[in-house]
Design a protein that fits this description.
Distance between the termini: 40 Å
CATH topology of the largest domain: Glutaredoxin
Number of helices: 9
Helix content: 25-40%
Number of domains: 2
CATH class of the largest domain: Alpha Beta
Strand content: 15-25%
Strand order of the largest sheet: 1-10-9-4-5-6
Radius of gyration: 19 Å
Structural class: alpha+beta
CATH superfamily of the largest domain: Glutaredoxin
Shape: globular
Oligomer: single chain
Largest sheet: 6 strands, mixed
Length: about 220
């Protein structure tokens, strides 16, 4: 291939790349216009230092990003895929989020004793809390169990999921199913609002500071 042919092909690809960038910017802007939902339920979590509330997780910031980490109370270790993602949560990333008025926390359904043991073994330093005994995981569809709360995955009810032939194991399972995801919250006038949640492919593409910030109410 000649240089001229390569340049023509590259210019064609550049046009497609610009289309993707424009679409991503449009989606991000649409996300920032999503309505917010006031959190009236009093959620509590277990942490290394004792019990904390959802309000406490903001730790002085105005925005909060929660990583829903798959870790069932019956498991002895956390999800391998979630673990691989959390290996990228560095002190530098956390500091840069804090510089942008954003706190980060990981929440799992497993008891805090299991979380501390696994976190220590992995050598992680981010904040990780247990929602064991709380309705948090079920309300935000990070744990699917029809015996406790209506099941919804990717904002679809089981009937819609089954009709489309997608993720049948998530809605047909006879035992609780853990689901990875991200939820974002905003603190305004001492009131906590839920601004965004995602699971599946969206969460798989989140790894950098800008990726996390773009999911929040005011963006990057």
């Amino acid at each position: 291939m000649s240089r001229a042919q390569w340049l023509a092909a590259r210019r064609e690809l550049l046009a497609r790349e610009r289309e993707v960038t424009a679409l991503r910017d449009s989606v991000n802007a649409h996300r920032r216009r999503l309505p917010m939902v006031r959190i009236d339920k009093h959620y509590t979590f277990a942490g290394p230092g004792g019990e904390v509330t959802l309000r406490d997780l903001f730790a002085g910031s105005r925005r909060l990003v929660v990583q829903h980490f798959m870790f069932s109370p019956s498991w002895d270790a956390g999800c391998p895929s979630c673990s691989a993602a959390c290996d990228e949560i560095s002190a530098c990333l956390l500091a840069r989020l804090r510089d942008r008025d954003t706190s980060f926390a990981v929440i799992s359904l497993a008891p805090i004793s299991k979380i501390i043991k696994y976190k220590t073994w992995r050598g992680w330093d981010f904040s990780w809390y247990s929602s064991y005994g709380s309705e948090f995981n079920y309300d935000f569809h990070a744990t699917l169990d029809r015996r406790i709360a209506p099941v919804s995955y990717d904002f679809e009810v089981p009937e819609e999921i089954l009709a489309a032939g997608h993720a049948n194991d998530l809605v047909d399972a006879q035992i609780p199913v853990e689901v990875p995801g991200i939820s974002c919250f905003l603190l305004h006038d001492e009131t906590v609002f839920h601004t965004y949640s995602a699971c599946g492919q969206v969460t798989e593409k989140v790894s950098a500071v800008r990726d996390f910030l773009e999911l929040t109410a005011s963006g990057g």
